[in-house]
Write a structure and sequence with these properties.
By secondary structure, this protein is mainly alpha-helical. Helix content is 51%, strand content 2%. It is elongated and about 70 Å long. Keywords: ANK repeat, Repeat. Pfam families: Ank_2 (PF12796).
Length: 259
């Protein structure tokens, strides 16, 4: 294995000690900013690993570009957000002037990655300190809340709804709400949380006329269907919530959900 391959492997395997040892050596053979591991640069991997010291060295000593994009247009900030490393992100934003609202080829900003992976601290940093838009949409019209719902990330969802006042009925380009995404993905905890807020309409239809119930049924998500039924059972005794009675399996109105 070549020296640069060994170095790349150390970064990929999160072997900090070996990476630090090899960087000065590999520079004699090839500039670190030219080394790619499956298309990803060492700086991207260092940011994802949370190696603040190595990230600083790669930029200051080895002249890596903090604004460099990978094969799908992700920046180091996207990688750091996905890795849950606020300290690295703070350095990249404050000292390297990286854009926290930078988008990749799918329109994702770092906030979308943090939402999908349940990184609440990253979310708070980006929204509270960097003033990122918590309702930012990607190329499909998905907000961070859609991604949190799909990933079953209730902590992030609670933060977005309770503290950032995000709209849980926001629709994507295909008319899907976070509840549609949660039921489609089989994210039962997310479904339960969204219904418990009292702010989601379980009868809402997407652009193809599908309700969350129909999506769960189509995909065979029995656990999610159980949550929907349980919610209906609990709510059926409250007249003000009578519209959710159609969630009850066997209820004559259930066809409304399947329409």
């Amino acid at each position: 294995m070549s020296l640069e391959d060994k170095c790349g492997t150390a970064f990929r395997n999160k072997d900090h000690e070996e990476a630090v040892r090899l960087l000065p050596l590999v520079k004699e053979v090839k500039e670190p900013n030219e080394i790619k591991i499956a298309g990803d640069g060492l700086l991207h991997l260092s940011s994802y690993n949370g190696w603040l010291d190595v990230t600083k060295d790669l930029i200051a000593k080895y002249h890596c570009d903090p604004h460099e994009r990978d094969g799908v247009d992700r920046t180091c900030l996207h990688w750091a957000a996905e890795g849950n490393h606020v300290d690295v992100m703070r350095y990249l934003i404050d000292e390297c002037h990286c854009d926290p609202m930078a988008v990749n080829k799918w329109g994702w900003i770092p906030l979308h990655y943090a939402a999908e992976d349940n990184h609440v601290d990253v979310m708070r940093y980006l929204i509270d300190e960097c003033h990122c838009d918590p309702m930012a949409v990607d190329s499909r019209g998905w907000t961070p809340l859609h991604y949190a719902a799909g990933g079953n990330q209730v902590d992030v969802m609670r933060y977005l709804i309770d503290e950032c006042h995000c709209d849980p009925m926001a629709v994507s380009g295909t008319g899907g709400t976070p509840l549609h995404v949660a039921t489609s993905c089989g994210s039962s905890a997310a479904v339960g949380y969204l219904l418990s807020t009292g702010k989601c309409d379980p009868l809402a239809k997407d652009n193809e006329g599908r309700t969350p119930f129909k999506l769960a049924k189509e995909r065979g998500h029995t656990d999610t269907l159980s949550v929907l039924k349980k919610f209906g059972d609990i709510k059926s005794s409250h007249p003000i919530d009578s519209y959710v009675n159609v969630l009850l399996v066997g209820n004559p109105g259930a066809e409304m959900l399947e329409g």
